[in-house]
Amino acid sequence: MIRANGVIGFQLATRFLKEGYKVFGTYRPRTKDDVSVAEVRWGRPQAMILTLRQLEGTGVQSIELVYANEESINAAAKGFAGEKLDILINCGAIYNT
Asked: Which site in 24, 34, 91, 97 is 20 to 30 Å from 63, CA atoms measured?
C-alpha cells in the first residue's frame, strides 16, 4: 500500500489486514513522527496523516519510501525480503503548487 499513513491508504490497509492479508505500507520520511504535516494549507485542512507509530500499531509492516526518488524505491523494494507481492495499491500522488 503506497502511502498507507494517509486516510485512504490507512483504511484500505487495515481492511486488508482484517481479511487476513499480510500488508506492507509505505510512508514518506517527513511524515514519520510529524503530525504537523496535517496543518492547514491553502486555507483548507490537508488530509489526515498518521505518524509511523500509529501505522505500525495496526500490524502493517511499514516501509519508508519517497516515490519520486529512485534510490528510495530500490531501498524500499529490499524491504520485501523476497516476499511475493500479489497486489499493489497506490494511494500516493505528486502535487506541484
From this structure: 97
Alpha helices by DSSP H, listed for the chain, are 7-18, 52-56, 70-78
- Residue 36 CB partners (closer than 8 Å, separation 6+): none
- pLDDT tens, 49-90? 666 677 778 888 888 888 788 998 898 888 777 888 888 888
Rounded to whole angstroms, the Cα distance separating 11 from 82 reads: 26
Amino acid identity of residue 41, one-letter, is R
CA dihedral of residues 82, 88, 92, 93 (deg, nearest 10): 110
Name the more confident of 30 and 33.
Answer: 30
Q: What is the pTM of this model?
A: 0.71
How far apart, in Å, are the Cα atoms of 47 and each of 1, 64, 71, 81? 17, 19, 27, 31
